[in-house]
Structure formats: structure tokens, C-alpha cells
Amino acid sequence: MERRRVVITGLGTVNPTGNSVAESWQGIQEGKVGIGPITAFPAEDFSIHLAGEVKDFHPETVFDKRDLKHMSRFTQFAMWAAEEAVKDSGIVGTLPEEEIGCIVSSGIGGLQTIEAEHTRGASKGFERVNPFFIPMSISNMAAAEIAIRHHLKGMCICPVTACAGGSNAIGDSFPQNPGWLRNCYGLRRHRGYYFRTWCWRLFQYEGSFSCFRSQQRLHPLR
Q: Coil, helix or strand for 89?
């Protein structure tokens, strides 16, 4: 049986303990707690008042504001972490673009956009819905935006398999082309191709938050 090897060449992250690998790792070492009072939306009517939120996130310091207007928050997070990982790896520009691909898993995609545009349509009429609603909300847009920005012309896909997304992304890269890892971009070579695999999960909006609460997957600590 052929032995296959995975090599992690670059790291990137954005999470409740820090918006970079160095900041996050330092926070973990210092015992920093990423859980705190919910600020993303009014939570007074919920029995859950605590969550792990990304803090002090300012994507406009790296990306064009005009581009960000057409990206859901999950895509912005993905782009941010990918930017760090790509620089850390130093791999882009050293290989043919056709031999580097991108696999980014997202459970649902732009939940915030879906909720906001439905509210807009219900209150102002559905002809007033943002024309970018679909491309902002679909799950594969994070992978697409990363591939476009870094000129990755190999396979570009998005496994949508809930909590198994990260493992799925890694597994899908084995027999194919390129892929990077969730918060830890990984690079492996197989059949002459390189892959990035990654997974992202986000539910810090009222609708999705309510769903997890009704499933009793969140504990009502205050």
C-alpha cells in the first residue's frame, strides 16, 4: 500500500483567542478565555448570554473595502486566515498555478447574509434584495475568493458536511489536486499536485444561534 505524506507548510487563523497564529497561541499559553458576553446581536431574550466571538476584526486593513462589501463574514474570516497561511508557506509563486488548488469546507455559508436579505425582502419587498445575495451566501464562495486572490488554478471545491467538513476537505485532497487545513493550512503533494484544505464554522447570528439553543447544544450559562 502506497504511503502518503502530509506536510503543513503554512499556518493561519482567526478565532476567539486571537486573529493570528502568534496572537492566538500566546493567548492560549497565557490562559486567555475566548468565551464572553454576546455582542454580535441583542441577546437579552435568550437564555444563552455567552459565546466565543472573534474580536477586533478589521479586514479592511488588508482587503479592499469595495471587495469586502460583497463578502459575507465567513468569507472574510476565511480570506484573513488564508492570507496569513499563504505568506507563512511561501508556496505561491514557486509552483505552477495550475498545480495548486483550494478546498475550503463550510457548513452553511453566509448565514448572516441569508438572514439579513430575507428580512430586507419581507419588510421592503423582495425586489429590493441585494443582487449579490446568492454569491455572498453560497458555501463555496470562501474557496472561490481565496483561489481568485492567490491565483490558484487547480481544483477548487467546498465539501458541505457539517462538523466533518475539515476531515472531508483533507480526505478529498488525497487523490486529487491541492488543499489547505482549517486554521492550519496544510500542503501535500500527490500525483504532482498540491492542495489546501480548510474548514470554517460560524453561528453567531440570531437564527442559527436559536437553532443550536433549541437543540440543547448550548448550555444556558449567563
A: helix
Three cell numbers written together for 75: 468569507
C-beta of residue 188 within 8 angstroms of C-beta of residue 181: no
Q: State the cell numbers at 175.
A: 487523490
Query: Using CA atoms, how far apart are residues 143 and 197, in angstroms rounded to an integer?
Result: 9
Share of residues in the chain with pLDDT > 90 (%): 26
Q: What are phi and psi of 97, to 5 degrees?
A: -60, -30
Task: Say which residues have a Cβ less than 8 Å from residue 213's Cβ, sequence separation at least 6.
Answer: 46, 47, 48, 220
Q: How confident is the model at residue 75 (pLDDT cuts 50, 70, 90)?
A: very high
CB atoms closer than 10 angstroms to residue 35? 11
* Residue 121, amino acid: G
**DSSP element (H, E) containing 52:** strand 50-52
- The Cα-based distances of 204 to 42, 56, 139, 144 in angstroms read 11, 15, 16, 23
The DSSP-derived string for 170-206 is HHHHSSSS----SSS--BEEETTEEE-EEEE----SH
Question: How confident is residue 179, by pLDDT bands cut at 50, 70 and 90?
Answer: very low
Q: Please state, rounded to an integer, the average pLDDT across all residues of the chain.
A: 78
Strands 188-190 vs 193-195: parallel, antiparallel or unpaired? antiparallel
pTM, two decimals, is 0.79
